[in-house]
Structure formats: structure tokens, C-alpha cells
Amino acid sequence: MPDFDSAINELRLLDDISGKDSFIHRIHPVAKLITTIIYILITMSFDKYSLSGLMAMFLYPIFVFSSSGLSMKNGLYKLRYVLPLICLVGIFNPFFDKESLFNIGMISVSGGTMSMLTMVAKGVLCLLSSYAFVATTAMDSCCAGLRRLGVPNLIVALFLMTYRYVFVLIDELSNMLIAYRLRAPEHKGIHISAWGSFLGQLLIRSMDRAEELYNSMELRGFEGDFRYAGCRRLERSDILYMLILIATFVMARYINIARVIGGLFV
Amino acid sequence: MIRVDSVTVKYDNENEAVSNISFSIMEKEAVGLIGANGAGKSTIMKAMLGLVPFAGSIHVENIEVVRDNIRKIRRKLGYVLQNSDNQMFMPTVIEDMMFGPLNYGHSHEEAEKIADQALIQMGIENLKYRHNHKLSGGEKRMAAIACVLAMRPRILLMDEPTSALDPYNRKIVIDRINEIDRTKIISSHDLDMIMDTCSRVILLSEGKIVADGNAQEILTDKALLEKNHLELPLRITRG
Ligand SMILES: Nc1ncnc2c1ncn2[C@@H]1O[C@H](COP(=O)(O)OP(=O)(O)O)[C@@H](O)[C@H]1O
Ligand SMILES: [Mg+2]
């Protein structure tokens, strides 16, 4: 199952690049989080036919990706599992909404086609921006950010623990997969007869490990309240970053930049 | 300093993992807890930390290990887990090391300073910003010990600190252990290591104490060790 291995590596990689350093990485997590949320809200609020207006919104992910050293190609590649879903949602629009909106040469473009394309574009934008946030913010900083926003500690702790538990689970799973494959090299994947015991083992082993990990946290003074290492105060540059970007989003929402630029040449 | 009185631990209702054990340990003593797999070494350590329920009583610096005192007790004890993978839970080494000091109310700068000292003490400054899941087994063990040292415990409990280490790293760990001037309890079946680090040895077998005394005497007693599924330290066999 090479596919599974690569999926593990991708997740690990995400954890790695989020620990890197760049101007974007250094922005306060809260500022980034708010910016991302507002970006998503504004993107979603675009009219269902305004594909040209949406184009300007692509600038934000491009900006974050390029200034943080992330690869756009990788970002899009990672979205390959989710993108078909978005396309699927919009795929019937052209059949329902057949009213012609405008013509490109001889072809008339229907409202349904436009709304489908717009929906796909919105989906891609939201996913890209979320990915950009996660990839430039270490999970602990995310949690610190959530705490600062007033999200209850219990929920944040749960979130962080779940995230850690996923890694424990993945670790155990990859160990077990290796053990299995070494002893059943001719099998493709795991034979169905072994699934029950495999899953059971996985659960027990990862629970044991999770418990030990939790013990080890308690032994080091953990009492349910994370003292996040990465939590500093919001600085002027963070607020500036946030305000400039949000202002740009709002502008892009109400002024159709693509059309304005187009208008200059007509 | 540590007093263990008639302690019995049962994981399930039938078998006793540790039965009716008593011993006490003085300040600055280095004690080796030896015995074959399943003898109950880890279980005793966990009982001291209040991680498993037990019958009998344990006192650490005259404080009894009971629920209400558990925080005070755990602050005195530093526990290096048998499996370092289960010890480190933050993304990077430095974050893991600062976790304890931050929890104990140190500021960010202080915590980092404390962590740096522990890194230097273990000689692993180069691992500071590394990702935990990318460390080798030996590096992970060193980092795990450093994490515990950063807690500045009065007493160090180490569960098989040299298991799964290559000879080079094993030697380093032994040297570092010897440099740490604190009360130490070290569990292992690596008797050469115990001989290098401990002056006293408690030999466990099937949850009971079989011998307790001078390390040199017990570790050279071939009949006693073999009866309890252990072998003489290599250097003794080699003469
Ligand atoms: N979580 C557990 N549940 C049930 N039995 C356990 C558990 N942990 C250890 N035991 C049993 O307790 C005994 C002592 O184990 P342990 O203290 O881990 O031995 P050692 O560390 O000396 O190898 C063993 O027989 C083991 O099977
Ligand atoms: Mg053990």
C-alpha cells in the first residue's frame, strides 16, 4: 500500500513545514486565523455568477504561498482528494440553470455553467487558504491562537490531543503495516481475514501509547492547561498585516478588479 | 528519602505484578533495580509516581504517595520512560523540553534557559530544533533524558535507559548518568550498565525481592543471577 505511506508522509510533511520560518510564519497565529476566516467568508459571499470578480481573490493564496516558500503545486496536489467532491456538488447546475447569460463567439454560456465554475473556484480558494494557514502555523501556535480568541481551554486541549493522537495512531499503523507486509509479502494490502485483529490491535496499541503519553504529560506538570511556548502578544505588524489584507478582500468584493482592468483597454 | 512499605500491585484481579515489597533508599544513593522481563521493575516505578494503584505505602521525602499529594510527589521525581516515543509529545525537542518548566510557572525565557542547560548537560545542543519524530533511537533517548533533567527533579527514575542503544550511545548515557549528582533509581537487565552506575542493587524476580545489597557482591554472584534468569555482567565473564 504505497498510497498509504505517501499519505502518512504528506501529513508529517505538513507538520514539518509549519515549523519553518518566513515572514508569513512569523505573523501572529490569531492575526492569520482571523484573516483566513474573513477571507473565506468574503469568498463565499460572492454572487453565484461572479466568476470574474472571484479571480482577484486568487491573489491572496498566491501571495501567501509565494512569500512563505510553499509550493503551489504541492498545495493543489494535496487538494486532489477533496476537489472532485466540490466538482460533484456543482456538476448538475448546468442542467438545471440553462438560461443563457452571455455568448463567447458562437457558444452561449448558461447560468448553470457559470455557477458551477464559480462554485468550484470558491471551493478551491477556501481550501487553498485553509491549507496556507495550516501549513504556515504550527499546531501549537494555532491552539495558542484559539485560546487568545476566547475558545474554551477544554476544547482547545481536546483539539490538540486529537491532533497528537492522530500521529500516534498513524505511527502504530505504519509499524503494524510494515510488520504485516514483511510476513505477507505476496499480499496486496491487508487480507480481509486479518482486518478484525488488525484493527483491534491498532486500537489497543494506540490507546496504550496515548495513555503513556498522557501520563508523561502529567508527570511534567500538565494539569489540563497548556502553556503554549509560541504565544506572544499581538504586535503592530500583525494587526497591520490583518487590516491591509482584509481591506483588500473587501475592496475585491465590491470592485470587480478584473472588469476594471478590462475596462481600461476597451 | 524513599520508603517502600509492603507494596503490592495487581493489574488484574488474579496475578500480582509486585507482591509485598519493602525497601528504602537514602539521599544520593544510586540503586539498580534488576530482574528479568516481567519481574516488576517498571511497575514499582509507576507505583512510586502514583500511576498505578497499589496496596501498602510509599513515602518520598516523608510525603506519602496518595492522591492528594500526587503533585508534590511528581515534582520531586523525574521519570525516564522505557519507551522514549511515549515520552516526547511536542513537535520539536526544544518545545518538549520547555513543556515541563512552563507548566511549573517559569517564563518563556527562563524555560528556554533551563532547557538549554539540560541540552548542554546531555551534550545534545545540536538536537535543539530537531523534530522529535525524525530522531534516531539513541538521539530520542538522550533527548528524553534531557527533558526530564529540565524538570530539575530531586530523584531520577530511569526505566531501562540503555535498552535499544548502540554501544557508543550507551557509553554516553552511562557517562551522563554518572555525572548527575542526585538520587537515582535505574531499572535494567543490562547488568554491565548497572555495575557502572550503581552502588546498590535490588534484584527482583516475579514481583518479589530476591536480593538487596552491594552491587559488586550481587552482580558477581553467578548462581543467584542465573537462578533469576540473568547473566553475569560481560566483564565478569571475561574475567
Ligand atoms: N498494563 C498492564 N496490565 C496488565 N498486566 C501488566 C501491565 N503492565 C505490566 N503487567 C504485568 O506485570 C508484570 C510486571 O511487569 P513490568 O513491571 O512491566 O516488568 P519489567 O518492567 O520488570 O519488565 C508482568 O507480568 C506484566 O505482564
Ligand atoms: Mg519494564
Can you walk through the features of this model?
- The complex is a heterodimer of chains A (266) and B (239).
- Chain A is mostly helical and 266 residues long.
- Chain A has helices at residues 2-17, 23-26, 29-45, 51-55, 59-68, 72-78, 83-90, 93-96, 111-136, 139-148, 153-183, 195-219, 236-254, 257-265, and strands at 100-104, 107-110.
- In chain B, the strands form 2 sheets. A 6-stranded mixed β-sheet of chain B has the order 6-7-8-3-9-10, sandwiched between helices. A 4-stranded antiparallel β-sheet of chain B has the order 2-1-4-5.
- In chain B, 47% of the residues are buried.
- The A-B interface holds A 12, 15-16, 19, 138-140, 164, 167, 171, 209, 212-213, 215-223, 227, 229 and B 49, 51, 71, 74-75, 77, 79, 81, 83, 85-87, 89-92, 95, 98-100, 102-104, 108, 111, 131, 133, 147, 151.
- The complex binds adenosine-5'-diphosphate and magnesium ion (MG).
- The site of adenosine-5'-diphosphate has 11 residues of chain B, from helix 1.
